[in-house]
Design goal:
Helices cover 49% and strands 15% of the residues. This is Glycosyltransferase.
Length: 435
């Protein structure tokens, strides 16, 4: 069974989507897996070797030079060994995307869509790649923009492969998210495109139980649940032997989408507690460079420190050095609606660290709801309950060990990687065999 994974970004273990794809497909025969993506940056994983990339620079060139055909096939190990490449184009592309994320992002998206409409991406280069690989399954993370959906269905038409969509974010909600009229129109178009793709797909997976329930009703179609996994076969035991030292709370993840405000909320409460007697320290790691306002909110002398970026390979050790690992969601109304159905894959990393999980966020968020129902974390759903949970820890430090064990047991129940991969493989076999 041959699997084609379609992504917008390169398959890179250092970003959330790439890490999740590796989580699902690790162990797959490298001869039977390939990836098509739409960026200049290079992949970074140990699962897939066969790639086809299309860049917007190539699309632009094809407009002004009709004989030029965008798209490139490469085998990664051979390519990186035999090519003295520089990532100038990838760095420029990232700067451009970063700029547009902060300035007039909607207009930039429309320009991008127009480029994909008139650029010659659907050409003999792509057709030859598809003919040579002959996929049975196309697995795609559902897209926020229209052009990857067009690419998806072009691939389906050319190969007659089965289409499996993975819904990792909520792209059906249109109202209540704020922004300009242009942004609202963009969300409307996006929701229509996602609805069409989900209804035409042969199988749909959702990232959270809440999303699964809601999408099943909205789309009137079966939606299956697919969590990220980890290896929970080797029992992790946490003992707080350094009881005379500060209780170390560690956060590793995004500070965007208002999460820095939640981290600041926690830091302020720790500052008040530590002013009487030093008990906690909060260490914040993120790949994103915070604004001056965010730094002032999160990094408070005597309470917390912003530690900057940590390499992906070092994240497990950073989490293992903690007494408590932190998951946060935004309390801003717009961000609450945008993330309410999402399930952060970082939660599984927190479980796997074998440490107590402390979660702070809106109680209706899918991730917070999940942690409450599974009693897998100490949870605060507002600023007042942050104080309550910190006081609980101060008065009974055995809670740290108790909830470390509860988090691990939740991982065993719901996120054991071999069970997840086995179930996913069996679903795909049935799809190919019986349809």
């Amino acid at each position: 069974m041959k699997l084609l994974v379609l992504t917008r970004s390169p398959w890179d273990d250092t970003n959330s989507l790439g890490n999740t794809m590796t989580n699902f497909w690790a162990g797959w025969n490298s001869e039977d897996i390939s990836n098509i993506y739409c960026r200049a940056a290079k992949p970074n994983n140990n699962v897939c070797q066969r790639y086809y990339s299309i860049t917007e620079k190539e699309l632009l060139r094809s407009i002004f030079k009709p004989s030029y055909l965008p798209g490139k096939t490469f085998i990664w190990n051979e390519y990186k060994e035999n090519t003295n490449f520089e990532d100038k184009e990838a760095k420029y592309e990232e700067k451009l995307y970063s700029f547009f994320r902060k300035n007039s992002f909607v207009i930039a998206q429309w320009g991008q869509e127009f480029l994909w409409k008139i650029g010659k991406w659907n050409n003999s280069n792509l057709d030859q790649f598809l003919f040579n690989f002959k996929p049975d399954i196309i697995f795609a993370s559902c897209f926020a923009t229209s052009y990857p959906h067009k690419l998806l269905w072009y691939i389906k038409e050319k190969t007659n492969a089965k289409v499996v969509l993975f819904h990792a974010d909520d792209y059906l909600t249109v109202d209540g998210l704020g922004g300009s009229t242009f942004a609202w129109v963009n969300r409307k178009i996006r929701a229509k495109r996602v609805t069409q793709s989900a209804k035409e797909a042969d199988m749909n997976y959702c990232i959270s139980h809440k999303q699964q329930e809601e999408y099943s009703l909205k789309l009137k179609k079966e939606m299956k649940l697919l969590y990220k996994g980890a290896d929970f076969s080797k029992k992790s035991i946490y003992k707080r032997d350094n009881s005379g030292e500060l209780i170390r709370i560690v956060y590793v993840g995004s500070i965007l989408c208002g999460r820095w405000k939640t981290l600041g909320m926690l830091a302020r409460q720790i500052k008040q507690i530590n002013a009487i007697k030093p008990i906690f320290e909060l260490l914040i790691y993120s790949q994103y460079q915070p604004s001056h306002e965010a730094v002032e909110s999160m990094a408070i002398d005597g309470a917390s420190h912003f530690m900057g970026k940590v390499p992906a390979t070092q994240v497990p050790q950073v989490l293992n050095d903690a007494d408590i690992v932190l998951h946060v969601e935004s309390f801003d109304i717009k961000e609450r609606l945008a993330t309410r159905l999402s399930f952060s894959t970082k939660i599984v990393d927190c479980f796997h660290s074998g440490r107590c999980v402390f979660a702070i966020g809106w109680k209706e968020a899918a991730s917070i709801d999940y942690l409450i129902k599974n009693d897998a974390a100490l949870v605060a759903t507002d600023e007042k309950s942050i104080v309550i949970q910190l006081d609980r820890i101060i008065n009974n430090q055995d809670l740290i060990e108790e909830y470390a064990q509860k988090a691990w047991e939740c991982g065993i129940r719901n996120h054991q990687i071999d069970k997840i991969q086995k179930g996913l493989y069996e679903d795909l076999v049935k799809l190919v065999k019986y349809n």
